[in-house]
Amino acid sequence: MAAGLYGSDAVFTAHMDAFFAGYGPDGAALRDVWLRPAPNPKLGDALLTQPLLFAVGQALGRAVAEWEGAPQVYLGHSVGELAAACLAGVFGPDEGGALMAARSKALGTDGAGGMLAVSAPADAMAPYATGEVAVAAVNGPRQTVLAGPDGPLDWTQLRLTEGGFTFMRLRSSHAFHSPVLRPAADRFAAVLGRVGLRPPQAELYSSRTARPVRADEAVRPEFWAGQLALTVRYWPALSALLDTEGTEPGLVLLDASVDNSLSAPVRRHPAVRGGATVVVPLLAPGTEGTPAELAAFEAAREQVLRSREGSPAQAPVS
Fold first, then answer.
1. Measured between alpha carbons, how far is 145 from 139 in angstroms, rounded to an integer?
2. Dist. CA 271–CA 164, nearest whole Å
3. Is residue 210 left, alpha or beta, with left meaning phi > 0 and alpha meaning psi from -120 to 50?
4. Which residues does 165 contact at the CB level (< 8 Å), separation at least 6?
5. Are 146 and 183 in contact (CB under 8 A)?
6. Pfam family example for this protein (predicted)?
7. Hey, which of 149, 237, 246, 313 would disulfide with 207, CB 3.0 to 4.6 Å?
8. How many whole angstroms separate alpha carbon 215 and alpha carbon 31?
9. Would you tell me how many other CB atoms lie within 10 Å of the CB of residue 313?
10. Are 176 and 166 in contact (CB under 8 A)?
11. Cis amide bond preceding 312, omega within 30
């Protein structure tokens, strides 16, 4: 998770350190978990992984903003939406650590369960998203995630097998983005209510509404906290962004996910296939925690700078 940039990229390092300091007494231990080489079973604990995903996302964003011009549009997935909100100025980087510590505390033992990634469109999952099992995320045209308590989710697995679907159980101890997390969302909203939330200072797409966040929405604590219990509409949001802004040459899509999964579904989008949008991964899978990770990040910077110069070498990634 971008550990190879720590101690090498000054901006990234400074913002990671600030996050761990703001996280409170457990910040140093969380940093040690992050920096521990693989195998690292503690990263299977969502109460640790979620704040780290936020920290890495916002620190990468701050580092990218030091390039020639900050990003103009932000979109995040799940807890990454909070990182995007932080980068867009809804709340400050000095508040991120404390907010993520409060979010993990709000989660606690509520929402225990699991998640299933299914190779199917979201509408095909309607018969399976019943009772306590819900559509947790729409990640692509045929990438849908279901979530729910273990018992009902086990029953759903049997039904999916009978239906001939391909699916995989995700490594999650919580049924994120399902109704069972409503109590945790309410507790987190109470914490956000003590923060001076502000309208975004840059365009911010929401994976809750699949459109830009309005000023009146951004200042409501429940808008951000409620996403714990609601579907992540990442693919509809990304499609809306590309349909609106990807028709003119010059849009550069930066993928901050560790495994480049966030840009995978977009590579067949007409804006990318036609060359109007360029996809640039910030990290290279398999290089986590090594010097090669820094080299990949620097290569991404050079690719972005070339794309801004309109170099013919900047063909879309196919």
1. 8
2. 33
3. left
4. 118, 119, 120
5. no
6. Acyl_transf_1
7. 237
8. 34
9. 8
10. no
11. no
> H or E element: which one contains 241?
helix 234-245
What length is written for the chain?
318
For 257, the 3-state DSSP assignment is coil
Q: Which amino acid is at 177?
A: H
Among candidate residues 228, 249, 225, 251, the one with its CA nearest the CA of residue 238 = 251
Runs of H (alpha helix) within 40-126: 46-65, 79-87, 93-107
Three-state secondary structure call for residue 68: coil
Please list, in sequence order, all residues whose beta carbon lies within 8 angstroms of the beta carbon of residue 73, skipping any fewer than 6 positions away. 202, 203, 204, 205, 241, 245
Per-residue pLDDT tens listing for the chain (318 residues): 899 999 999 999 999 999 999 999 999 999 999 999 878 888 888 889 999 999 999 999 999 999 977 899 999 999 999 999 999 999 999 999 999 999 999 998 788 899 999 999 999 999 999 989 999 999 999 999 999 999 999 999 999 999 999 999 998 889 999 999 999 999 999 999 999 999 999 999 999 999 999 999 999 999 999 999 999 999 999 999 988 876 666 689 999 998 888 998 888 888 888 888 889 999 988 888 888 899 999 999 999 988 877 643 333 332
For the chain, which domains are there? 3-109+180-308 (3.40.366.10), 114-172 (3.30.70.250)
**CA–CA separation, 298 vs 305, rounded Å?**
11
**HSE of 306, CA atoms in CB hemisphere, 13 A:** 15
